[in-house]
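Our working data are protein records whose layout never changes between entries. Instead of coordinates, the fold is spelled out as a row of discrete tokens. Here is such a record, shown just as it appears in the course material:
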Amino acid sequence: MDILSILAESTRSAFGPIAAIYALAAVGLNIHFGYTGLLNFGQVGFMLVGAYGVGISVAVFDLPLAVGFGAGLLCALVLALLLGIPTLRLRADYLSITTIAAAEVIRLVYRAGFAEPLTGGAFGLQNLSADFRTLNPFDAGERYGFGLLAYNGNHLWVLVVTWALVAVMAGLTWMLMHSPWGRVIKGIREDEEAVRSLGKNVFAYKMQALVLGGLIGALAGCMLAVYQASIQPDQFKPQVTFFLWVILLLGGAGRVFGPILGAMAFWFLMTFTDGVLQGMGALGWLPFLDSPDYGAIQLAFAGLMLVVLIVFRPQGIIGDRKEMLVNVK
């Protein structure tokens, strides 16, 4: 088992396109929970409608990729309104129940047989990244970097664009949270009754935060579709939202760089765990496990990491314990 190779591959994963996509989705979740105190357990639903906005536009209707991004964001806006209007005037747990249920219902609808002409059903949609790759300034046949820390031209192009989007959204978050709007949002997280007593429309601010975070999540879904060049509904299971929560809590909720650091650390640890398990299996040290079992162990590791975080450092790596408090009275 080559530990150095495993460490190099883990570092490559920490800076790779998937880490960037999850960081982008976690930035949206941070606006929901970290700054506003909204318990959204269905961020994967926003990613799904964003990805399928691209997929249906490009693969089914043969529209430009830019139209696909616009369609994905529009679908996320509609979804946020549908989720927020009936729930945001109620207690926080109503939103959490609604979001996790809605995300799973949407996934099942998109994979259903009657939706197959549009969504491809359980098989999904393919050939989604041709327009994106035509803009690629890098040579698709070349590898850039050094050693194991290298990416081919197509992956590097997705990596650069996605991390650029992460930087833009992080900068937007920083500006918003240092504005009067952001101070109201954080006030709602701490004590929405106090904010309401000052004459602020708490429902409107919550809705704005839900829409903004959902749009960022949908943008992550769009980039996932472009990166993979294909999508299918079972990629958007609830465990994706679970990973996003681990990322957010690992990095630190209510911090601009928390989701970014959390995504990098999470995918480093997940890839390292997989590499160690594969190496131990190859050496015959895990005779009681088969290769398909390694994924279950990874999930168990992610759950254990979340438990350890909550017990020993609920504020995350760079967070503040106060940021974890929701609706403190």
Observations:
- Strands lie at 125-126, 143-146, 149-152, 230-231.
- The first strand starts at residue 125 and ends at 126.
- The chain has a mean pLDDT of 90.
